[in-house]
Structures are given as structure tokens and as C-alpha cells.
Task: structure prediction
Amino acid sequence: MPFSKIQTAVSTRRHCSSSIQRADKCVFARHRCAVTFRLLTVALTIFPIAATHADEREVFFERQIRPLLVEKCVGCHGSDKQEGDIRLDSRDQVLTGTDEVAALVDPEQVDESRLLQVVLYSEDDVQMPPKAKLAPPEIQAVRKWIRDGAYWPETMDFGKAKAINPDAWKKHWAFQPIANPEPPSETGSSTHPVDAFVRRRLQEAETSPSPQADGRTLVRRLSISITGLPPSAKDLQEAAALSDPTQLNTWLDAYADRLLATPQFGERWARYWLDVSRYADTKGYVFTENREYKEAWRFREWVIKSLNSDMPYDEFLIRQLAGDRMPENEDPQQLAAMGFLTLGRRFLNNRHDIIDDRIDVVSRGTMGLTVTCARCHDHKFDPIPTADYYSLYGVFDSSHEPGNAPSSLRLVDHAKPREPVIFIRGSAGNRGDRVPRHFLTALSKGEPEPFTDGSGRLELAKKIASPENPLTARVAVNRIWLRLFGNGLVDSPSDFGVRTPPPSHPELLDHLAKFLINHNWSRKSVIRHILTSQTWRQSSAPRPDVADADPENRLLARMSRRRLNFEAFRDALLTVSGNLDQTVGGASVDITTRPFTKRRAVYARIDRQNLPGTFRTFDFASPDNHAAKRFETTVPQQALFQLNNPFVMEQADSVAAQLTQDNTRQPDETIRDLFIRILQREPTGKEVTAATSFLTTTTELIPTANDGVGWHYGWGELRNDRTKLARYEPLPTFHENRWGGSDKLPDEKLGWCSLNRDGGHTGHDLRHCPVRRWIADRDCSIKIHSILKHSTDQGDGVHGHLLFQDRSLATTHVHNSSGSLSAKSVAVKAGDSVDFVADCGANESHDSFTWKIRIEQSVDGRPVRTWDSSAEFSSEAATSRLGAVAQLAQTLMLANEFMFVD
Amino acid sequence: MQNAAAQNRNHSPAAVDRRDMLTRCGMGFGGLALGAMLKSDAAQAAAARSTNPLLPKVAHFPAKAKRVIHLFMNGGPSHVDTFDPKPALLKHGGKLIPGGNLKTERPTGAAFPSPFRFRKHGESGTEVSELFPNVAESIDEIAVIRSMHADVPNHEPSLLLMNCGEARLVRPSFGSWLTYGLGTENQNLPAFVSMCPGGYPIQESQNWQSGFLPGVYQGTYVDTKHTQIEKLIANIRNDRVMPQQQSLQLDLLRQLNAKHLSERTGDAQLESRIQSFELAFRMQTEAADAFDVTREPKHIRDMYGEGVQARQILIARRLIERGVRFVQLWHGAGQPWDNHDDIEVNHRRLAKECDQAIGALLKDLKQRGMLEDTLVIWGGEFGRTPVVELPKKGSNAGKINGRDHNHWGFTMWLAGGGVRGGYVHGATDEFGFKAVENKVHVHDLHATVLKLLGFDHEKFTYHYAGRDFRFTDVHGHVVDELIA
Result:
């Protein structure tokens, strides 16, 4: 019976820890095993087995040991998986050991047998099996079996310890030199190379590309892809006017060039690199230390400028790793490039973690290699030994931040570089072999040569940014492709390791990588190259014929529809409202609090520790980790933001304010203007009808003619007869949850006089009474129901007065009690006010009250509306209610048409 | 490919199918009709998952617990003063304990007997100190773990270990893992809520971070010092557009979007966004309702008592009742239970602030039949030393009446959600310094809690940066004894 027959499902243990403190449980990691049990490679023949005992021992093995191994061990250490390169179904492995791992049992020294040690579950050692300790009789059986000579019949050997081919990775596609493939010719010699590669795969799948999208769609697609902003009306019109495809394409080529030359290109594309760079303006949690990276924004500035000037990508990388060693190394603007390394989380200033973060951002960011997996043990899959990790560790350990001048973002080399040692299992307290500082072994020809120039940072940078490096250019063009299409050619843009499947279009990836290198590493050239392809200009219309076979559109039979990202959405709102501040560059600004900045979202201050919820809600890249791509989720919190956030309404208001200055305009003119401004097109007849009806009904609810209708929050002077206000003023300030005299309570002038959602507090005399005022929006009849309540037996209670046109409709006094103030059927005209006034009586102490008011409005006996003082309580002055036109503008801003790019 | 669910389709638990989802979420305007334009149910389900990662999903195996309330006594409550009686301290009071003190954050001295009386409670006879009389009334529902241990005696790493399973590096919090794995039963409320009155605990929002998981799984922070809904949840109210008007806006939006979609049939992300507006509209009412404890009958409010603890614990019950997956309640900003001095006065005050409400929560859940599938977790990031902290300028006001941090051994308790009630697991040594019997590491607790929630902690993974991450990393053993 093979082992597997009775094998039970055993858990996966495919993980590793990069944690120093507890990585010691990374069980059979080679180094440890090598040390601990390379004590015996004794052939079984050393233990002569008396024939008479063989049967007995075979039975023991068969009944006690093999089932145990099968049930508890081989799930992770057997034919399917060889955790720690160990197989417990392999007789040789267990009894004799392999090159990698020593024998697991030693009948001469039972207690030294590794197998026994791990099942003993000693606290300071590996504990196996991980799920639960074996039962005492089972442990006894293991001990007895080893003591009796660890008899294992040869016929029962089921697994050869898997010989690992140490060179298998060399065949991995990403480590091959970048080829310069000829575009397939069958699609025609004039075909754009990008299209040629894409069409060949489509042909193989027996399908075809989609037709070109229309001019308007492409103008919007280009504008948003390149600059992150909606196109101008003029450009849309020009493109729409071109019916000849050749003319249109020529125009689009020129348009793309024009856009690539704008500074807005750098702003859009810099943010992508900031995602990769885990950019933030703060250090994260550092206890009471100052959290600000004061000059973080200078790194952003540098990225924007380098993109706009089309700095060659190799130089772009070298300056970020070793700007201190490049020309202009005294120029703070250039040195800011090194923010790439220095702007990570500070991990309570733990040096090992800071360096780990730098190794991660460099290796995944530039080469798509997960080098930090090798912090505690050799990379499980990729050819990255722990020694390589510590080689790089040494490079960064030999560099330091020299304080302020000329740039706080700069790193420089120590006078004397540090020679790294391996930290065994990642533990700094457990030092292993010394390793030289050098480049990654897998990317070197033969043994990597030690770095000799200071820390080696510049040498490292040059190795990364070399045309010989098979990864760097591929990773770079894949990132560009990802931003332009929504998917990368390689699906995991920051992991090109051996477990990463080949690109969807391997030759295309190489073509683009070569193109980058051959065009002096110009990113603009690569972008332009892609944008001029028909592949990029395809329609995004659904393709039912390929939807099932290729749901993720990897073959590119059409363009993928994209959702605006957080920045583009915010920028688009500011653009259509005409408010966008197009200043390029500058320090970071808080974009979530009032007054709302009109700058582009790329300039947002990013607080790594407490990133505001809005960013998270819109799938902003986490500033804690290098982020290869953003998620595109749709959750109700996004809709809440769009419906209710003051910033959105401010933009809607702004659009409306620019339109409604002329009172003679017809509603359909207003509607047309709004569609053109916001959706950049004419409305259809149906849409005009729907929008007209919206404006009419909304205006019914709040007539725009009188913005002052509804609830107002003020204070007044009550005449001695308490039937009329001698004076009324709005309460000037909303603070915490109430309207009052100022941010302070009591206020110097108005004292405690204030109003909140459900009530308020009286002032100190009749001349300072809180007044909740309601102004009628139309001629109607109203019914008033209200309850005034005072809830303490202290003080002398509160008086309430319901005043309308110089008379008191009702009055009451409450003291630890409630009273009703109501009025039936009062005829009011539009603009009339009804006042709800509270006075303190003899003294104002203990004069908090609640006063909930409901007003039922009817016209000609027909109920039209109920007003509720609590539900409609507002922290905004009544005049700032959004008008009907602004509400329509906001609705258009919420449309999918605004949010998605075809 | 950017969508979260699709990226991890091999690792994440299966989403419930779309029909099920529609029933659970309540389908909104036009939703079904629009849905019908899509090709197949399977395609729709995949598409819906791809854009709304919070749809309910099923775990690896049937779960005993469906939701969690974590009562976080931040700062570190003293186990020898609450749930782990140590008579030996009395015997050795004022004397050095034999064998010497273990190293903790600060210098410590002689044995410090608990100033609080312990008494047996319930049929189980589990001993609880006078600090938690109301909790003690439900002791037969509770499994007390007296053998917890963590790695270091410092707040920051211990908080992160307890919440994120990793002491220093940036990793997703438990609540994020859970919402990633299970989604939420109520799309109108945040799936994962972390409440703390008056500000943040230390390590701040890292305690409920989503780490490398998509941002939508991050905990929603609520400052329960506030009572007004707009202060509690972002963008929940609109002072400039009235509800009736907003309803008209949404009607018009539906028409615009329907026209747009009709020219682009089969695009799930468009449809999903259409739905999200309706969910948002409903969320405004539902969230206001959920956070408004004044809607509870008086006898229930009286049962929980007065004060901010009572309010937030009652809010937690209202949220859980409405399908929120994970509610974490912090005692207060900073580290309130961190009593390096005056521990008698301070622990008494802190326990008084929350005991009645926690006791009420357990009974209230029980009477609603919710305790059986709601897991309640109580504890801090570590415990405190059984020996007195020596006076040191700047750290304990020079007093000799407090206890230092203690990660060597401490107590947590679990109740409901399939936990074995009336059970005491493990033990610390004679003095309560170190867990010695049936030790439970924080990772073990995580593994166990995941099991209660239906997950095999070794298979519950997320692929990121070249490998499959687990909440328990490479650690954690399920403590089966804790499971009923």
C-alpha cells in the first residue's frame, strides 16, 4: 500500500515569517538542520538486525510508526509537499539524510534524534506536528522505535527525497535576456508592432480586434490617461468633426503629443510612481517623536519634473538610489530623488525593519523581485539566497541620512562601509556567516563581484538600471501597460519570480522593453508608442463573442472600461466646476478639510499612520507598502461621499452659480449647459424631459426664489410682554453640535444661549433668548405640534413662546416637566416667519431644554409637507441649501458616464 | 486586474451566489432588471464579487460563531486582580517571590497581593474578583484562558501582535481578515467597526488596518464620545440636500445610468455602482438607527447602565444584531488599563465603568438567542506583574502601588460563539507570573478564534508580494479544549 493511500488531508504550511522575533519556528530551515543534525550519516547496515527481531520490528513499524507518519507528517513532508525539503515517506531521508538535511534519527543518541526532539514540543524548539502535540503513547512509540534501531523495511520506502534542481530557475522566462522579437508579418508590414503581437494571439484564439472607438471617446480616453483630467470642449469638437479615419488618427497622434508635453502629464504619472514608492508625508507611528517628513513633497516634485522632462528611466532609477553620487549632487532638488529610499515607515526607528523596507521598495519596485522573502531563509521559490538579502542589507547598512543640508531626503555612504553578516532566521542576535556586499547572485554572471565603491549603492543602482538586467525594463514597461490598459501583460507587476506565469504576450513585453532601452529609456516614447496603436484605440464595447472565453480581456479583443481613480475623480469635479488650480508643484496640502483646496489630488498630504477614510474608500494605494496596482472596488461608502460630502456639493454649487446669473434663461437651456459642462455632450430629448421634471419637483420642495425658507437659528430680544421679538439676529457660529455665540460656551456676549438638534439652552435674560425660526416657503396653512421639555428639578425651569406676527400663539413654563406648544390651522404667506423662543425666567442655571417641533403644511386642505426641527436640523446656515440647478449638477457628477472612461 | 476577490480567488472563501446575495442585501431599484441584462448567474456572481468585495461569503466549514465583539481593555488589565486568583501572593506579600522576577519593561520588587476579593461563581465555580460582579453572573457562559502569553512586555508590539498577528511589520488586522473572508451580512453598515471614545488607542488606526488587503476591509473608526450620527460616520448626513430631494436625485441618476448601461450591456462594474447608490441611500437611515441607543427600551438601557462604555457596548449589540461582522471596543484613548501606580483605585474605576455593561451584553445576547453564534472576546494586549513595580521617576509618580506589564502570562476570556462555557483553560505559576500549564500564545488564540468562525487558519490565505500570507503567519495551534 503506498503511503498516499491512507494519507489524510494535512494543512498547507506554505508561509514564512519575516518577523525576527518568532521566525525561529520556520521549522526545518536548512541552516538550522544542517547545524543540528549533521551528526550522523550512518548507513543502516551499521545496525545489524537479528533476523528473529525483524518481523516484530516490522510489525511495530507497520502498526505504530508508519500510520503516525502518514497521518501527522507526510501531508507537509511527503510526495506532494516537501516543507523544509524534508520527506518523511522517504526511508533514505529519515535514516540516512540527504545533501540538504541530515538523518532525522540516531539510534545511538536517541535524545539527539531530530524527529524525537520536534515531537517533544519543547518550548524553545520547533514543535511538530504543528497542529497539536502527539499523544504521549505516540511519542513513546517514536522513542521506542528509534531506540530499537529505527527499523524501516526497504520495501516500505515510498519516496525518494526529491532532488531539487538548483538550476531550474534559470529557465524562467523573466530571467532570460530581453529579446528583440520581429513583429509577426502575417498581419501586414504596415501594422503597428503592438497590434501585430496582439493580433497574432487573437488570431490564434480565432477572434479579431474591435473597431476603433469614435473620436470623442478617444479624446476623453487620451486626456484622462495622459493627464488625469477631462478634455477641453474644443478638443472634443475638433475630433468629432473629423470623419475621415486617417485624418482623425493623425489628429489623435498630434493630440497625444500635445498632452504628453503638458505638465499635467507628470502630475498624473507621478502618482503611479508614488504608489510604487509607498509615498507618505509622515513616518508612521513613532510614539511621541515628530511624525512629519517635512520635505517629503520634494520627492514628489522631483518625480513630476523628471517625468515631464522625460528623464531617461535608467537615470531616474540611479538618482533615486544613489543621487548623492550623481552629477548635481549638491542640488537639493535632485537629491530629493532619494526620498524613494528614505520616506518609508520608521518602525519605531528599528534599523533592521527600515532597511528591510528599503530593500523591498527597491527590489519589488524596480525588478519585480520579492527579495525580502529571503530575510529569514533562502527564498522558497526564487533564486534568492539569504546571503543575497544580507548583501543588500550591507549596502543600506553602510549608508546613512546626514541630517538637513542640502536635503533631508539624502543618503550618503559611511566613511567605512559595514561588512554584513547573515542574521540566522532573521534574528539580529543570531549571527551567521559574513557576506560581501554585492548584487543578486541570480542576476550576475557567475559569482557576483563584491562592491568596492563605498557602500556599493551606486554599483547596485547601475546593476539595476542596466540594459543587461533582464527584469528592470520589463518591469517598467509592464507598469506602463498596466496604467494604460488596466491590466499588465504580466499580472503581478511587482513579482516576476519563478512562480509568476509568463506574460499574456511575451514577445510584446520584450518588444516594449527593448523599445524603452533603445529609445534612451524614454518613458514618453513608450507611452506614445502604445497610444498610437490600434489596440489602444479599440472600442470598449462589450464583445459577447469572447466574453466567456476571456472574461478578463487578457487577449485585448477590446479596450477595458476604466473607473476614474480617486485623484482623477476629484480633479474632474474641480475641472468641470471651473475651480481647478493648475499650479504645478509645491508642498502637500490637506485635501479633506475645509476650506477645500482646489489643487490637484496628487498634492494631497498623505498621513501614513491615519490615512483619512476617504482615501481608503476610493482604493487609494496603501502608503505602508509598495503598491503595484490599485483595486477598483465599488462600495456604498463611495456613493455616500458623492452624495453627501461637502466638497462634492461645493463643486456642484459652483457650476450652478456660473450658469444661473441670467434669469431669463429657460430650464432646457440650463439643462443643456449643465450636460455640456459636466458630461461634455448634448442631452437627449428624454434626458431634457427627465431633468426638467427634476428641476420642477425639486424647486417645489425648496423654491430657489427664497433661499431663506425653512429653519433658522438665531437669538433675540423678547419684549417684556413676551409676545414679540424686539430684535432678531442669526447665531453666528456652529461649533461642536450647536449654534451659539462663538466657539466658546458660555460665549462672552450671548452666554449659554444656544440651539442644537433637539433643543438648546436659554440665555441669561430676556434680551438674549435663543430663537428657532421657521420661514414659510409658500402660502399655506400650517399646524404646529411641539413639546418643550426641561429635565431637572434644579433651577427655575424654562419658558417657551410660540410667536407669530406680533402675537403669542402659545406659551408654557416647564420645570422638570414637559409642556405642549401647539397651534391649529394658522394661515401663513410665503416668507412669513414663526418663532420658537425660550427664556430663562429668573435665572439661567440648569436651563437646558429639548424642544421638538413639527409643522404640517397644507395648501387648500391638501397636505404638502411636514417639517421636523430635529430631522432637518442643519449645521449649515439655511441660505446655503443646495439649489435645484446645483442638485441637478451634482446628479450629473454622480453618473456612471462621469465616473467611467470608455 | 485590480479586483480584490478575483486576485485571490484560489485562496479566499467562496462568495455566496448572487441570488442569495440579492435576497440578503435586498435588491434595489432596477437592480434585478439590470441584472437580467447580464449573461448568466455565474458571470454575474463573479462580476458582483469583483467589484463589491464585501458581499457575504462562506468559510471553510460551518462556523459556530458568525460575528465577533472584541472588548479590548487596552493598557493591560491585571490578571491576578481579575480572573486569576493567586493566594500565594498573600502568603508572600511584601517578600520577594522565590526564584526571582522575570524581566518585564521596568524594575519590579516584592509580591503584591491583590487588594480585591475573589469569589466562586456559577455552577462552574470559576473564581472572579470583586471587580467584575456582573460579568461573573455569566461565568458559566465563559471560557477563561489563564495561560495566555505574548512575546514582549511593551504596548506597541503587543497591540499589533494581538490585533494583526505580527508585532512590528505592517499586516492586516483580524477584523480585516474576517471581512475579507466572510464579507458582511449588511451592506448598509460598515462590516468592521472599531470604537474608541475620545480618540485613538496607541498604535492608532494600525490596530484596525487592512495592511496589504484592499482598503475596503479596513475597520471604520468611530469615536463614541460623540452621540451625533454625522460625527460617528463620515458622509452619513447631508445638510444641503433634503432627503426628499436626494431621493429625486437618485431617481434621475437611475435614468441616466440606465441609458448609459443600455449602450454597454454586460458590464458588471457599471451595474455594481448603480446598486451602490441605493445601498448608500438606505445606509443613511440604517446607520442612524443602529447608532442611536435611545431607540432601545428603557429597561435595556438601564440594564447596560450609564456612561460611554455602556453606550458603546449597547451600540455594539445593535450593530452585531444588524449583521455587522466584527466590532472592536476599546476602553478609551491611549492606554487606560496601564496602571503602573494606584492600581487599586484605577482598576476599580475602570472595571466599574465597563462591568455592568459587559455583564448586560452577555445576558442580552443570551436572551436574544444571539450568544450562541456571537463570539465575545475580553482582554488586553498583555497582563500585569504579580509583583510591585518599583518607583521610578517619570514612570509611576514614585509610587509603589502598581504593577508592570506582563507578557509572560495573562488572562483573556471568550464567551458565546461555540465556546465551552464555565471552563478554565491553563494556568500561570503559583504567583501568576508566567503561563505554565496549557499555554496559549496569541497566535494560538487567533487560530482558535478563526476555527470558531469556520476557518482553518493554515488555509486562510491571501497572496501578496510573492507568497501566501496567513493571519497566524507560520504559527498557531487550535486550542480544541476551548471549543464546546
Summary: The CA atoms of residues 364 and 739 of chain A lie 53 Å apart.
